[in-house]
């Protein structure tokens, strides 16, 4: 499924809470909540030595995508443009590959210009 089709499909399951800001806050909180549920899968593996539940990981990633893509729709943000700018930002930060040095000493001004373009 492509992003545009996904965006159309999930809109019908997105509740309206009465205000644009309230709807956006709902999406932001939902992203955080689902990220916590994703972390819980890893906590169970790490702390309790349970098998890693990859099916549940996929479900939580899907839920994070649901909230994220709905938030993009609400803000008229194009997810593909966001992905493209994210890659450009990472190429600026890590010209060759990830290094701790580049992670620590990066140009936030240059990265911001990429994101604003």
Question: How would you portray this structure in words?
Answer:
This protein has 117 residues and is an all-alpha fold. The chain folds into two domains: 1-76, MazG-like (Helix Hairpins); 78-117, no CATH class. The protein is built from six helices and no strands. It has helices at 3-11, 20-48, 54-74, 79-93, 100-104, 108-116. Helix 2 (20-48) packs antiparallel against helix 3 (54-74) and helix 4 packs antiparallel against helix 6. The relative contact order is 0.11.
Nearest-integer average pLDDT: 97
* Number of discrete domains: 2
The geometry reads as globular
Q: Give the low-pLDDT segments.
A: none
Helix content: over 70%
Write the H/E string, N to C: HHHHHH
Number of strands: 0
CATH architecture of the largest domain: Orthogonal Bundle
| Termini separation | 28 Å
Question: What's this, in brief?
Answer:
The protein is mainly α. It has two domains: 1-76, MazG-like (Helix Hairpins, Orthogonal Bundle), CATH 1.10.287; 78-117, no CATH class.
Task: Provide keyphrases for this structure.
117 residues, mainly alpha, Helix Hairpins, 2 domains
Helices and strands, with pairings:
Blueprint: H1 3-11, H2 20-48, H3 54-74, H4 79-93, H5 100-104, H6 108-116
Helix pairs in contact: 1-3, 2-3, 4-6
């Amino acid at each position: 499924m492509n992003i545009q089709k996904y965006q159309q499909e999930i809109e019908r399951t997105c509740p309206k809470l009465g205000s644009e800001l309230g709807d956006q806050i709902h999406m932001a909180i939902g992203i955080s909540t689902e990220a916590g549920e994703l972390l819980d899968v890893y906590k169970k593996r790490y702390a309790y030595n349970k098998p890693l539940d990859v099916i549940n990981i996929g479900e939580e990633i899907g839920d994070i995508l649901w909230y994220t893509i709905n938030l993009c729709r609400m803000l008229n943000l194009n997810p593909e443009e966001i992905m493209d700018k994210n890659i450009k930002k990472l190429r600026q930060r890590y010209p060759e590959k990830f290094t701790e040095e580049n992670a620590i000493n990066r140009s936030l001004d240059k990265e911001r210009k990429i994101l604003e373009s």
